[in-house]
Structures are given as C-alpha cells and as structure tokens.
Write a structure and sequence with these properties.
Keywords: WD repeat. The chain is mainly β. The protein is built from no helices and 21 strands.
C-alpha cells in the first residue's frame, strides 16, 4: 500500500488519521480485517478499531510486480495476494508473517483473481500471455481464449485456467477454461464456486476438483456474480438487470 498513490484508486479507507488511496480491497468474513493491494506491488492489512475507524496493522511487502487481487480470511489467519507476474503470496493476517509463495503452473501468467474458501482452499484464476503492466478494468471481461494447434499444444497467448491449492500450498488441480470470465464467487461453506462468462453463461464448480456441476444460460451478458443464499446465485448483467438463479446443488 502506497500512501498518496492516485493510480487505480477505487476507495479510501481511514487508518488512524491517514486517508489511504487503495487499488483493491477485500473484507474478511468476520468484518474485522481489510486487506488492500496496490499497483506498486505493496499491500497492507487493517483492523477495525471502532465503527468507521480502521488502524493499520501490517505493511506487507514482497511482490516484484503489481498486486492485482487480495483475499483475507480471519478464521484461517490468512491473507493471500496475487500478482501480475504469476506469484501468489500467503501471509498471516494477525502477525503479518510471510508464510509461503505459490507460483502458477501456467507460465508466463498473471493471477487476476484469488479467493480463500471456508475450507482454506486457495482458488486462483490465471491468464497467460497478457501484458503484466496493463491496468485491470473491472468493467471488461478477463481475456480467456482457449485453443489447440494440430499438435495439441497450448500457446501462452491462448491459455487461462483455474487453480486450486491446499492451505499448506500444495497444488491440487488445474482446469483450463473455455470461456471469457467476468467474475468468480465462492459459496459460504466453500464447497462450490460460481463464475459468469462473457458468452452469457454461469457455471457452478466443485472447489476441490474444479469439475462443473451445473451450467445456466443468461438472457444478457453477465458482469458480476455472488451467492445470495446457499441455493441462489445473483448475477449482475450489462444494462443494469439482475438475474437470480436457483442453483439447486445441495
């Protein structure tokens, strides 16, 4: 986190008496911690001091490239940060201690999304062949084309994937994607995830195996997705419409 940086700012939080511009932020499931990321490769963890007030708890430095996404989970004492150079770093949210670095097995790649499930699985979304210095536009889709040549080899410009890691950093599975993804969300219990794509589709997947368990067609192009209840998905679409889907997976 760089105090005074105006590049890519989307919000301002108060840490003590200091107003801090933030590029990306995420709130822990208990509402007591906020983790932030910056395009200058730094990040920070803040703790709620009182309603409306946040105190800076840790400055977390270690990335060599821009931090594109962060995730925090207080129950598992984890902050996970994703970088444009394909690295993912795990920290302790309470102590700020560096724990481990994960590297995507699809290289060169940028990690555009990272999520922590309730079961402490780490879900990463990587895109290969993108310019690691480009700024992310939250309104555009993530570049995800998928094709093979006659030898069945994937070029760096054609591959994007979901990856799942265990809480100790062991790589469990990777799934190459066939859609352009706009957003990803995890269910509260961590068993399932859901993603919305530019081709007006929603897919629900198992977070352990990354296998697709349900698919749905949208009447409009989806931009964002969240879990309204364990059985319902809420999708925001272009044009301002909202679609509620009965997932029917439990």
């Amino acid at each position: 986190m760089a105090v005074g940086s105006e590049q890519g700012t989307v919000a301002i939080l108060s840490a003590g008496a200091t107003s801090t511009p933030l590029d990306d932020k995420t709130v822990a499931e208990n509402g007591w911690y906020v983790a932030t990321g910056q395009t200058d490769s730094n990040m920070a963890a803040l703790e709620k001091a009182q309603p409306g007030q946040w105190k800076l708890q840790h400055m977390l430095c270690g990335h060599d490239a821009a931090v594109l996404d962060v995730a925090v989970n207080a129950d598992h004492d984890m902050v996970v940060s994703a970088s444009s150079d394909g690295t993912v770093i795990i920290w302790s949210v309470r102590s700020g201690q560096y724990l481990q670095t994960l590297i995507s097995n699809v290289l060169p790649a940028r990690i555009e999304r990272v999520l922590i499930s309730a079961e402490a699985l780490i879900i990463c979304y990587s895109v290969s062949g993108s310019d690691s210095h480009d700024q992310l536009d939250p309104c555009r889709s993530l570049s995800l084309s998928y094709a093979t040549n006659t030898k069945g080899i994937y070029s760096a410009a054609e591959v994007a994937a979901l990856h799942v890691y265990s809480t100790n950093g062991r790589h469990l599975r990777t799934r190459k994607l066939v859609h352009e993804l706009c957003d990803i969300a995890l269910a509260q219990d961590g068993q399932y995830g859901a993603c919305v794509s530019r081709d007006s589709r929603v897919a629900v997947f198992d977070t352990h195996t990354l296998s697709v368990v349900r698919q749905f067609e949208l009447p409009a192009c989806g931009c964002s997705i969240t879990w309204g209840t364990p059985q319902q998905l809420v999708v925001g679409c272009e044009g301002g419409s909202i679609v509620v889907i009965s997932a029917d997976i439990y």
